[in-house]
Specification:
Number of domains: 3
CATH architecture of the largest domain: 2-Layer Sandwich
Structural class: alpha+beta
Mean pLDDT: 88
Strand content: 25-35%
Low-confidence stretches: 1-15
CATH topology of the largest domain: Pseudouridine synthase
Order of helices and strands: EEEHHEEEEEEHEEHEEEEEHHEEH
Helix content: 10-25%
Radius of gyration: 22 Å
Shape: globular
CATH superfamily of the largest domain: Pseudouridine synthase
Number of strands: 18
Length: 342
């Protein structure tokens, strides 16, 4: 049997397969070899992945005609997992930052789920994109796999900010490879509890599901429990009990910034899942407690915003860069903390 490992990151929505070829394998074109071994994967999808250097043998990209040999180590990056639920169009307004025939960049509001899942089928970003791409679909579900919005990454429901979505299979594979190679530039603005000793720092650790609560993540020192994750941060403003940071992602694990900040004892302001919705720093006076509660009311979610996004365009090969200002709820709370610090 071939050794096949499958990984699907919530943040990096692609499939990553690793296959070690049997010692007794005869010479065979790699597109046919993979077609025989990967379920729900068309030959066209395999060839598209090869055309965008997303199929590698022994760490080198190969063409569909490559002949598989015994002992080869094959790694494949695809753009999205097999379809598991029907997609419907929902007429939800979108904040479109950029759009052309290949990609669309969205400034997602906090509170919007990115992708439908069991128990939450409608009114997600994907449903809104289906309506945007196919406005005449009506109440019928999307039938063709090729017409699906191409999610390359996700951001959490209660995180705001920039996302790029592909419009065709080639663009999806091209962008997925950039995420896989870590050449996508993503920077977030975060408000955290506490004071940082240094102006810059890097957080590393294996991020995986919490062993007791599968709905949240945790940081481990053993790769057996999680996947390698790296977050770089820079202090932007010191505001007494809280600090405003810029965070740059080197990897894209689920809840990465949120769990990394908790790991170093600086949870995000008002992050209920990671302990930031309590008063962790400051005075014990009732007036201060009321001030913090007012800030919680202004920003009723974790203080995290995907502020900038940079990537290479799949057709023009030009570097595109986008920025999104802080949304009103985040900005209002930040202004309150600035007044407090002054």
């Amino acid at each position: 049997m071939n050794n096949v490992d499958t990984e699907q990151e919530q943040e990096e929505l692609y499939e990553h397969h690793r296959i070690v070829v049997d010692k007794g394998q005869s010479l065979l074109r790699i597109d046919k070899f993979l077609g025989n071994r990967l379920e729900n994967t068309s030959r066209n999808k395999i060839q598209t992945a090869a055309a965008t250097d997303c199929i590698r043998v022994n760490d080198k990209p190969v063409k569909p005609s490559y002949k598989v040999k015994p002992g080869d180590v094959i790694t494949i990056v695809f753009s999205h997992p097999p379809r598991d639920i029907e997609l419907y169009a929902d007429a939800i307004p979108l904040n479109i930052v950029y759009e052309d025939d290949q990609v669309i960049v969205i400034n997602k509001p906090a509170g919007m789920v990115v992708h439908p899942a069991y128990g939450n089928y409608r009114n997600t970003l994907v449903n809104a994109l289906v309506h945007h791409f196919h406005p005449h679909l009506g109440n019928a579900p999307l039938k063709s796999e090729t017409l699906r919005p191409g999610l390359v990454h996700r951001i959490d429901k209660n995180t705001s900010g920039l996302m790029v979505v592909a419009k065709d299979e080639y663009s999806l594979s091209f962008l997925a490879k950039q995420f896989f190679d870590r050449t996508i530039e993503r920077k977030y603005i975060a408000l955290t509890w506490g004071t940082f000793e240094h102006d810059k720092g890097t957080i590393t650790g294996y991020v995986g599901r919490n062993l007791k609560n599968r709905k949240i993540m945790d940081v481990f020192t053993d790769e057996k429990f999680g996947k390698h994750a790296v977050t770089h941060y820079t202090v932007l403003e010191r505001l007494g009990p809280v600090t405003l940071l810029q965070c740059k992602l080197e990897t894209g694990r689920t809840h990465q910034i949120r769990v990394h900040m908790k790991y170093i004892k600086h949870p995000l302001f008002n992050d209920a899942e990671y302990g930031g919705d309590a008063i962790l720093k400051g005075t014990v006076y009732n007036k201060y407690k009321q001030f913090v509660q007012n800030c919680f009311d202004l920003l009723p979610r974790q203080a995290l915003h995907a502020a900038s996004l940079g990537f290479m365009h799949p057709i023009t090969k030009k570097l595109l860069f986008f920025e999104a200002a802080l949304p009103t709820d985040f900005d209002n709370a930040l202004q309150k903390w600035r007044q407090y610090a002054d």
